[in-house]
Design goal:
Length: 144
């Protein structure tokens, strides 16, 4: 309250008394403040692009998390008597059930003598975003 009275006195002193019928130099505020219509549209566009990005990218990450679980389970369940081709066949059948398509060249299986197999799947996924803009995701799942 005190600052407002001081500010009014300073302005009156600086600009002199107000003449009859002239406008005040103090801006009048209606008490309303907020985001303009253009601001709302801007933030809505950003929100739409963010949601579209998440919707396009999340299935790839969901497949990757499922793939990691499948690879680690398959590596733990492989016995020393299983060959690499048997492990590959079992892994491919699990991936088929989960509807995950991985090229065979990206699957590497290393058999050690007595321990579980080391299964490494390293692949790239291209996710188209908008028009000619795409996102390259690199995934690597290791199970032993």
């Amino acid at each position: 309250m005190r600052k407002s009275i001081l500010n009014t006195l300073i302005i009156k002193k600086a600009f002199g008394p107000r003449a009859q019928g002239t406008r005040s130099i103090m801006p009048r505020h209606s008490g309303e403040a907020g985001v303009s219509f253009i601001g709302v549209i801007f933030w809505l566009l950003i929100l739409v692009f963010l949601v579209a990005f998440v919707v396009k990218v999340m299935p790839s990450y969901y497949d990757y998390w499922s793939l990691k679980n499948i690879v680690s389970q398959q590596a733990q369940q492989s016995g020393p008597e299983e060959s690499a081709s048997q492990i590959r066949h079992n892994l491919n059948s699990r991936l088929g059930v989960a509807m995950i398509n991985i090229p065979q060249k990206d699957i590497q299986i290393e058999k050690s003598g007595i321990g579980p197999a080391l299964i490494t799947i390293s692949y790239d996924k291209i996710v188209p975003l908008i028009a000619n803009i795409s996102l390259l995701l690199h995934f690597e799942a290791v199970g032993h």
